[in-house]
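Technical note accompanying the year-one report. For the benefit of new consortium partners, we illustrate the data format agreed upon in the data management plan: each record pairs a sequence with a structure-token string. No post-processing was applied to the example shown here.
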Amino acid sequence: MKGIASQLPDNDTRKKILLRSAIHHLETSLPNIASGSYGGEHWLASFAVYALTNEK
């Protein structure tokens, strides 16, 4: 969502919606990384690293 938002013009109303949604997604996912389950510790962790290090 951050990548899509980065390609939109600053005055595009969808940009703010996408960025807000990306932040919400990340905030909801981060607490589940240490869940003890494969999905949380592998998949969520790898996507969290990408989300936190991707500047777009």
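Partners are asked to follow this layout when depositing records. The chain has one domain: 2-53.
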